[in-house]
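Much of what follows relies on a compact textual record of a protein's fold. Think of the row as the fold of the chain written in a discrete alphabet. An example makes this concrete, so a full record is given next.


***
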Amino acid sequence: MVAGLREVRGRRLTPLRQQVLDILLEAAEPTKAYAIMDILREKTAKSITPASVYRTLDFLLQHELVHRVESLNAFVACTDTCEHEHEPVFMLVCAGCRQSREVSDLPLYNIIYAAMQEKKFTVQGSIIELMGICPQCARAKAKEQQKGT
């Protein structure tokens, strides 16, 4: 992963950028900006404002180090190596535990992109989110149903 990085694609990771990235790398689920701010306030005596957290997230988004999970209004660290640009991703979001998984599938993206071009549709976002249930939550739900019968 990228913990410890100090520069990305020629852009310096300030201490705040590194802290926010580290928080997201350690998070078990997509994390909202205000939760990031709360964690930062616990870790430092410096005053942290929402604007500084959002500016930092914008930088990390722009450089594809994090992704925004729109359906949860939250952020996740890129699970790719983050040392190179990559194609837009698909986010698999579990409705049960809220964890997300990043999936890069260039052939599938190319099919979707070609269909959009055919319809003269201009892409403005680069993440497609799919809501579902992860295997762990599905097993837990099946156990609950077995107990109920």
Summary: The two ends are 44 Å apart (CA to CA).
